């Protein structure tokens, strides 16, 4: 077995041995129903907002808040209460991105010489086809280079992603070359070796045998492919057992901006704020792909500062909505505190924000009538200053 697999199996063995195993008149939120420390009911969160389910801890303090912001807008949410009353901001610094260091982490079985193309980003092309791309806010590695032509692993990557969308509740199973626990440990080791300051949180893990990949390809595209679905067609003739893992991150007990929540809306910037996430794909030959956004260390830390209470955060939201006219119904059903990396010209600062997520629907205007599917929207306010992130706060 390759050195990559030997290391993972050895680590897993050690771990096993060690473990042994209403409109209202008041201007403040009202109707505080409960405050309790318990698991958030998964069925409640799923029904109210699919986007929020993966951004909160398993064990949390919650408090129910209700307020009618105007005739069509209200807050009716289980607020995820933070553990503390004061939080620091953090200046971030990218981890050491020396190419030899990164190639050694992603390809411990060895790598050859490489060339550099730095026209748009730092792009390293290794002699056997491996590719490493370093940008200001991300690191991307693949054991194959699609710039050199089609590669089956690119189709596998596409199918594995689609599988997470079509079958999100499927439980992973061990594969021929490695157990699920060992695969997760491989990823944790990668994050540790990179030097990322944040704590990884596994969001999805899909394990498919080669035959299961082929069967899913047929399910998606077998004789009924519709280009309007927006999916990229694949054309695999064979596939090997593959594991696909998606991670979010937390820091100081708070979730970082994740991919399962609405993106950051901005009236002052054309560039979206990337989610702090990672995706890793593994087969018997090792890591085939790894994308990490904001692989950072902490360069500086501010003194802890008091953050807005949930009541004060809702007041900020009410102030914003009092200046707008809303004709469609909107209910903010999920509220939590999270860290968001805020980039300026010369620095990136991890800053706490209150996030309000709503889901709304509107009637079709055509003759068919009916209601369009719900869509998610988020409003975010700086938890220290109360300023609206949409306008640079």
Polypeptide structure, described:
This protein has 393 residues and is of the alpha+beta class. It has seven helices and 19 strands. A hairpin with a 4-residue loop joins strand 17 and strand 18 (348-360). Helix 1 (3-19) crosses helix 5 (180-194). The radius of gyration is 23 Å and the shape is globular. It starts with a helix and ends in an 11-residue tail after the last strand. Mean pLDDT is 82; it is low at 1-58 and 364-373.
Quick rundown:
By secondary structure, the chain is an alpha+beta fold. It has seven helices and 19 strands.
Annotation keywords:
393 residues, eight-stranded mixed beta sheet, 33% strand
As a percent range, the share of helical residues equals 10-25%
Give the distance, in angstroms, between the N- and C-terminal Cα atoms.
53 Å
Low-confidence stretches: 1-58, 364-373
Strand content: 25-35%
Helix-and-strand structural type: alpha+beta
Report the total helices. Answer: 7
Helix-strand sequence: HEHEEEEHEEEEHHEHEEEEEEHEEE
What is the radius of gyration computed over CA atoms, rounded to a whole number of angstroms? 23 Å
Largest sheet, described in full? 9 strands, antiparallel
What's the overall geometry? globular
Number of strands: 19
Mean pLDDT across every amino acid position: 82
How would you summarize the topology of this molecule?
Layout: H1 3-19, E1 35-39, H2 42-48, E2 59-68, E3 73-81, E4 86-87, E5 90-94, H3 99-106, E6 114-117, E7 122-126, E8 131-134, E9 138-142, H4 152-166, H5 180-194, E10 199-208, H6 210-221, E11 242-251, E12 254-255, E13 277-283, E14 286-293, E15 296-301, E16 305-306, H7 310-321, E17 330-343, E18 348-360, E19 375-382
Parallel strand pairs: 3-17
Antiparallel strand pairs: 1-2, 2-3, 4-16, 5-15, 5-18, 6-7, 7-8, 8-9, 9-14, 10-11, 11-12, 11-13, 13-14, 17-18, 18-19
Helix pairs in contact: 1-5
